[in-house]
Fold this sequence. Notes:
Layout: E1 17-22, H1 26-32, E2 39-45, H2 53-67, E3 75-79, E4 96-100, H3 106-110, H4 113-122, E5 126-129, H5 131-135, H6 142-153, H7 158-172, E6 177-182, H8 188-202, E7 205-210, H9 214-220, E8 229-232, E9 236-240, E10 247-251
Parallel strand pairs: 1-2, 1-3, 3-4, 5-6, 6-7
Antiparallel strand pairs: 4-8, 9-10
Helix pairs in contact: 6-7
Amino acid sequence: MNLHSQPTKPAAGAPMIALLACEVLKNEIVLYTQGASHIAEVRYFEIGLHDQPDTLRGTLQENIDALDKRDDIEAVVLAYGLCGRGTVGLRPLRHQLIIPRAHDCITLFMGSKEAYAEHHRRCPTCYYYTPGWNRSRRVPGKEQLDALRADLALKFDADDVEYLVKAETEQWALHDTATYLDLGTSDAAAEADYARKCATWLGWKFQHLRGDPTLLRDLLWSNWDDKRFQIIEPGMQLGQALDETVMRAEAVTAATVLP
C-alpha cells in the first residue's frame, strides 16, 4: 500500500492536543490531519523565526504558556526539531510537550532521523528543498539571491552588499546537488519544477525523492514512542542531547533564560 494512502487513526485513548507548527509544514499538516477531531487548535508561525533562535524560542514559549491555561487539551505538540537550538529550553507548566527527535524539519520529510542521517552520509553535498521552503524562496537559486541583494541594498553600501552576497554564494558552493523532498501535497509537482530550475541555474545535479510521512503522521495522530519522540512532562524542559537521541528532558535550572 502506498504510504500516502494508508489510513490514519489516533493511538488508542489519544489525548486532545494543540499543535504549534512552522509554516514550512502547513500544506503537509493540512493533508495529514484530515478528519483529526482530536486536534483542538493549530497555530502556525513564520519561517523567518528560524533566523533568530531566541525569538523563535520566546514565541513558542509564549504560546505554550497560553495553551497551558486551557482545560480542553492534554498535550501540546510541536512540529519542529531543534531548529538551530531555537526549541532548546522550552518548558510546559501543565500539559505534556511532545516534539519529534529531529535536528530540523527534513527529518519529518525523510520519515526518521536514521533515514536522514543515511541520506546525508551518502550525499554530504546535498542541499534539501521542500515545497514550503521553496514557496518562501529561502532556498539557493536566482530568486533568493536577487531578494538578498535587494534587502541588503537597503542597509549597506554597494561594496558591502557584494561582499555579503559573495559570502552567501560561497556557502552554496559547498553543495552540488538539489535534493527535493515531498510528502504528496497538491503543490508537490510545481515545487519540484521550481527546485529543478534552481539546480539548473546553480549548475547542480537534481534529485527528486518522495518522502516518508510516517513520522509526521504519527506526531500529528498521537502515536508517540520514546525512540522517535521526546515527551517533556510539566516541570521539565527540552534539552539538546549530543548523541543519536538528539534531545532529552532535563530539569529547569536558574540558568535557563528565555526572552
